[in-house]
């Protein structure tokens, strides 16, 4: 299952995986731009507004009817944040190959409709429908306001916002409430046209159709895609060092019965020439799987928390720890979280711990081959980082990671921020 990648139009890259493994096909079109506070909310709204209707099918009922006619094709908006790059667009899934009477016709109509949603929206006096814009603004505001309801993800979001407050990475993939509320139909239409003209475009296809046919069909359907001066100068600024010494401390109070302790680390100088396989294994060993040091020691052995995990963002060069604790265990839990990191840096872990960490990452990578949506996300993130390993090849690199590789990956980790969400004395029921 190999990937074929070519630039088929100025700044438009087609990534094609031809396989008969799946019963469905997957097609995604992603417009890439620099993540920033001023435009993030508008960019996030665009695919949702586009999905509301086209010139040919201006009403949702009409568009849904056409999707049903195409054997239940799904076309969904996609809004992603990869490092400090925002990727917005559409993802389509459809019945593939011999499972429909006229697959060639179905595939042609699916590609046509997907490109139509992107390029030929429902307009009113040359502008995106005001009704559609206002409706999607309300939906986005509801989503932004509801983030606080999940305290676990909220605390993780807050350490990112606070620790990276001087960086684009602090911006949510959907922007914020203030900029969402300020969006108008006029401003959104202008931003939509700018994205079409200047954004690099990543297209991903996975299905049984051969590359040459996919390319020809896309060139036909994208012939009206406006291409101006493409903004290839997008990317992620990776900070090597902590902003301040000692680490910055942030505290908030809400009506919770369980404290949320989140700690942010910079990966440091290892990001000058990153060994991604070693970084993933290091994180799995520290807190990224059920046999990790945080889980086995901080949670199971010492009972200092309800959960304790870590995640690594190699696109931005961060490692984040998130945990749920009793308020009075703050000092002990924080001390032990740092102690387990020191153990990883010193190589104080068994061969079995290393083996289990590598297996967890390698198995997850191989499982990617069984999901088209996982493959699509895998290749999008890898293309933005300039990697060419497919999931199986990358899993083989993971399995070759040594003890010394892990120690090296952890060696320059430095704490840059500590966030604690505690109760305010008006506790409500708390999520896990």
Structure write-up:
By secondary structure, the chain is α+β, with helices and mostly antiparallel strands. It is 44% helix and 22% strand. A six-stranded mixed β-sheet has the order 1-2-8-3-5-4, with helices on both faces.
Key structural traits:
432 residues; alpha+beta; six-stranded mixed sheet; five-stranded mixed sheet; 15 helices; 13 strands; 44% helix; globular
The helix/strand class is alpha+beta
- What fraction of residues sit in β-strands? 15-25%
Radius of gyration: 23 Å
Q: Mean pLDDT, nearest integer?
A: 96
Task: Spell out the helices and strands N to C.
Answer: EEEHHEEHEEHHHHEHEEHHEEHHHHHE
Question: Quick one: biggest sheet?
Answer: 6 strands, mixed
Low-confidence stretches: none
| DSSP strand tally | 13
Contiguous helical run count: 15
User: What is the global morphology?
Assistant: globular
User: Percent of residues in helical segments?
Assistant: 40-55%
Going across the major beta sheet, what is the strand order?
1-2-8-3-5-4
How far apart are the first and last residues' alpha carbons, in Å?
40 Å
Short description:
The protein has 432 residues and is α+β, with helices and mostly antiparallel strands. It contains 15 helices and 13 strands. Helix 1 packs across helix 7, helix 9 packs across helix 12 and helix 10 runs antiparallel to helix 11.
């Amino acid at each position: 299952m190999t990937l074929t990648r070519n630039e088929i139009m100025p700044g438009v890259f087609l990534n094609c995986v031809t396989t008969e493994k799946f019963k469905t096909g997957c097609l995604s079109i992603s417009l890439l731009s620099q993540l920033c506070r001023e435009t993030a909310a508008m960019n996030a709204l665009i695919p949702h507004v586009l999905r509301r209707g086209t010139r040919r099918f201006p009403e949702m009922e009409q568009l849904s009817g056409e999707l049903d006619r195409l054997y239940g094709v799904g076309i969904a908006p996609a809004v992603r944040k990869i490092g400090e790059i925002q990727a917005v667009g559409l993802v389509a899934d459809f019945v593939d190959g011999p499972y429909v009477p006229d697959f060639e016709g179905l595939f042609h109509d699916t590609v046509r409709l997907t490109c139509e949603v992107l390029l030929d929206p429902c307009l009113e006096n040359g502008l995106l429908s005001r009704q559609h814009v206002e409706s999607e603004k309300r939906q986005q505001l509801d989503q932004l306001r509801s983030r606080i309801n999940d305290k676990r993800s909220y605390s993780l979001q807050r350490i990112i916002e606070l620790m990276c407050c001087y960086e684009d990475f602090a911006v949510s993939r959907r922007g914020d409430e203030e900029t969402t509320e300020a969006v108008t139909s006029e401003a959104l239409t202008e931003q939509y046209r700018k994205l079409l003209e200047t954004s690099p475009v990543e297209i991903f296809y996975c299905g049984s159709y051969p590359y040459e046919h996919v390319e020809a069909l896309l060139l036909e359907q994208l012939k009206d895609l406006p291409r101006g001066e493409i903004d290839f100068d997008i990317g992620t600024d990776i900070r090597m060092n902590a902003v301040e010494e000692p680490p910055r401390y942030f505290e908030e109070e809400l009506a919770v019965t369980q404290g949320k302790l989140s700690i942010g680390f910079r990966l440091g100088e290892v990001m000058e020439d990153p060994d991604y396989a070693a970084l993933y294994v290091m994180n799995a060993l520290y807190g990224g799987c059920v046999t990790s040091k945080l889980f086995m020691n901080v949670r199971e052995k010492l009972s200092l928390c309800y959960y304790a995990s870590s995640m690594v963002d190699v696109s931005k060069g961060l490692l984040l720890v998130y945990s749920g604790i009793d308020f009075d265990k703050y000092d002990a839990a924080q001390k032990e979280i740092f102690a387990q990191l020191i153990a990883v840096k010193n190589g104080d872990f068994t061969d079995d711990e290393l083996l289990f960490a590598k297996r967890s990452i390698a198995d997850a990578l191989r499982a990617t081959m069984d999901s088209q949506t996982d493959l699509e996300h895998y290749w999008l993130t890898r293309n933005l980082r300039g990697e060419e390993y497919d999931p199986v090849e990358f899993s083989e690199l993971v399995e070759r990671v040594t003890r010394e590789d892990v120690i090296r990956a952890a060696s320059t980790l430095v704490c840059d921020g500590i966030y604690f969400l505690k109760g305010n004395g008006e506790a409500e029921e708390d999520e896990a």
